[in-house]
Amino acid sequence: MEINAFVIFFAAIFTSNILLTNFLGMCSFLSVSREVESAFGLGLAVLFVMIFTTAINYAVYYLILVPFDIIYLQYIIFIIVIAAFVQLTEMILERFSPVLYYTLGIFLPLITVNCAILGVSLFMVIRQYSFLQSIAYGAGSGLGWLLAIMALAGIRQRLKIKQVPTGLQGAGITLIITGIMSLAFIGFSGIAVIQ
Amino acid sequence: MKKIEIFRQSAFKENAIIIQILGICSALAVTNLMQNSLVMGLGVTFTLALSSMTASLIRNLIPSRVRMMAQTFIIAFYVILVDLFLKAFLPEVSRQLGPYVGLIITNCIIMGRLEAFAGKNPPLESLVDGIGAGTGYTLILLTISFVRELFGNGTLFGYKILGEWWIGWSIMSLAPSAFFLLALLIWIVESHKSKAGSK
Questions:
Q1: In which domain, by residue range, is B140 found?
Q2: Which residue of A110, B10, B104, B180 sits 20 to 30 Å from the alpha carbon of B53, by its own alpha carbon?
Q3: By a Cβ cutoff of 8 Å, what residues of chain B touch chain A?
């Protein structure tokens, strides 16, 4: 595939936002979007982990799995890499930067089971991106996820004082808002296509 | 508890998607076509049932510190089976589902059932619980994809239902409709529940 890495970067943020068009990372998106501060913390952690795990998984896939012809093990290997990276980050942060640890640390365990992280690695393999393209895709998807969760958290904070029908409170209204956001993001389509 | 009671509880009363809001990612992503939803639902049910049983079989052997890791491995093992099966026998569906088959590993429903049920109950009950939760998941997927495929393409399982006069309602094939339909389902169930509660 001959797509400029910049195009992939912007497309991953806007036209094929990992959350609003691919529905990845919904669980933590719905549960941690009550406050803007915590949404920002989680978004940053996702962005950070996503860039690095995409790079590591790229190396592991093309240097180990392909030469040894064990591609069918990719799911297990990818999830191990992600879990190990998250664990390592947590330990390093705890040791060297207590401030950062208290802002990001509580979100790190959540990230291992965030499907957006594994999803980006799998999309990278399926779409046969080069190394540079993969990094751009990982960074763009992470930024797109951060953008989406910040927007939702901002809306939800204002929604607290509004009256919502009983049956829609909580998950219902959040999904409707996400749907409207997703509609708005369709407006970006046409800028770039990476499918 | 009777097995049928366990099944009803995990499939309907504690429906993973509508009541517990778990496993939304794949529920939204594969529901544009009924065929994809059915395959995905069966894949999740298979993985859920067997990994529940396996986790329950070895629940006393695993120290609680590495429990999560062990559970992830068990799930990944069954997901690989599903993936290889789809690639071999249904290559077209496998291509359309893309990464979502692999993402069954991080489907919170499975981890949730293993933690909440299989860790404390004997294997046979866990198997029934897994099948129940998987059935509940599949039913919701089929409901959403029924609406999306019928109005989006005028077809069901690829067969033309609405005639030539039907012009595809294109938003139904796109992402936003999935959010709206799921919200609508949750709304219906929640208001039904609160009505039943107030009586």
A1: 3-144
A2: A110
A3: 21-26, 28-29, 69, 72-73, 76-77, 79-80, 83-84, 98-99, 102-103, 105-108, 111, 171, 174-180, 182-183, 186-191, 194
